[in-house]
Structure formats: C-alpha cells, structure tokens
What we know:
This protein is an alpha/beta fold. It has 11 helices and 10 strands. Helix 3 packs antiparallel against helix 5 (about 110-130), helix 4 (about 95-110) packs across helix 5 (about 110-130) and helix 5 (about 110-130) runs parallel beside helix 7.
Amino acid sequence: xxxxxxxxxxxxxxxxxxxxxxxxxxxxxxxxxxxxxxxxxxxxxxxxxxxxxxxxxxxxxxxxxxxxxxxxxxxxxxxxxxxxxxxxxxxxxxxxxxxxxxxxxxxxxxxxxxxxxxxxxxxxxxxxxxxxxxxxxxxxxxxxxxxxxxxxxxxxxxxxxxxxxxxxxxxxxxxxxxxxxxxxxxxxxxxxxxxxxxxxxxxxxxxxxxxxxxxxxxxxxxxxxxxxxxxxxxxxxxxxxxxxxxxxxxxxxxxxxxxxxxxxxxxxxxxxxxxxxxxxxxxxxxxxxxxxxxxxxxxxxxxxxx
Length: 306
C-alpha cells in the first residue's frame, strides 16, 4: 500500500460520524421541544437510531396557534394551487427517496425492497390527492332541486384546524395517507407522529418546508401520543380530530374531551393495507357543506325565469 493511500485510509478511520438532529416542525420552523426533552428511538432490533424531541403541552398549543393562523390563506387558496403544492411535495420526496427508504426500513424492520415499495406508494399518494383538490367539490357539491324560483347550491368547505394522530405501525405511508386528505381539502393539520417510529415524519417536515407549503399548514410533533393528544382534543381552537393512531382506551378518552366544543371526530378504523386505493372518505370526513339560496329572478316582459 502506498503512503498516500495509507494516510487516506487512516483519515477515514479517524473521522467522526455526523449524527442527524431531528426537530419538530411548527409554523414553518424547526424548534426543539420547549421542555428540552428527548427520547431514544430504536430500530426493530432495539438498536439506537436517534434522539427525537419529546413534545410538551406547550408545543401542542403552539402548533394550534400556527395552524389557526394558516387557515385563512390555505383555505382561501385556489384548489388548483393546492394541487400544485401537493404535487411539489411528491417531487421533493422523489429527490430524497433513498433517505426515506432507509428510515422506513429501520423504523419498521422491513427489507430494502419492501421499504422502497412503501416510499413509492407514499409518493404516489401525494400525487393522487393532488389530483383531487379541484375535483372533490364536483363530487360532493352541486345544485339541489327545490320548489320555488330559487337556485339552491351546496358546496364543500374545510372544517378548519384538524389534529391528526398518525398510525403507529405505518410510519410513512400511513402517515401520508392521513395528512394529505386533510390539507388537500383546505384544512390545516397538527400531526402527532408515530410514538415508536417518528423519524420519517420528522424528515417529512423538512420536505414540506421546501415544497411551497405555507408555514403552519402542517405541523409535526413527536413524543408520547397520549400526552400530546390530550390537550389537542380539549383545545377550543381545534375543530376536528383524526384518531387513527389511538388505541381503544385512548380513543375513548379523547372522544370525551373532544365533545366539549363539538369537535368532529374520526374514530380509529382498522386498515389492513395502507397501499390500497384510499377513496375519498378521509377527505369528506373533514368537510362541511355550505348551502346557498339565490332567487332566480325573471327575464323581460314575458316573465320567463332562468
């Protein structure tokens, strides 16, 4: 071995690893938990992967403030524009595909090929929902037949701020499957990542920050699901909650807390295969229907109406 190659090999052996620092994603920024707490995240074999921020009740309240502030701009954007932004998320994920394949494989104990299939399905899911943003109103809205000289039109509107408990087992595809329909229809979201496998969700926050998505539209928290979900379920400025990642006991407690301000609640539903075509149920779950009456009036002396 030459002296030069020997020095290079020795230098590589002496190099320190640069570990990734995971942070929350709130209001378009990357804060640490205000409590300063972290917890260890391990792979399926118990090997240490990283320290994830352990969110507090204060972090949850800050996320609600950010989400509420973003509602007006996001719900007021054109459906076409929202679709463009969701498609941009898919573009950015495609560019970081290898990172997410590695994180999903470590988080869920999958082979590289199976993890790659999960990531590809998640990217495709963003594209699927991007295509729905300007079409969902045509499916769930329309003109209503009424007796009298009136137009009667029903159109969907977003519910507002939605708290989302991400699925515990499907750390990325399941996560995307519960976030994308909420924001595709103009809502803003506070997402509690999988407690056991939060790293793909925290990395998704980095993608969202560079995808033209306005700050506050999606806010990602990690930590103890029950600890973070309790203040969100009881928060008077949260309009709805998706309990996908809650067990039966926690779900019942959160439903009771959510009843205080009549939140819309989507109860946990068993999902055998997150890669199956999702349908539109998760979009319509967080839509309200606005109905407008308008007199038709009359045309000309003949009195014919339109």
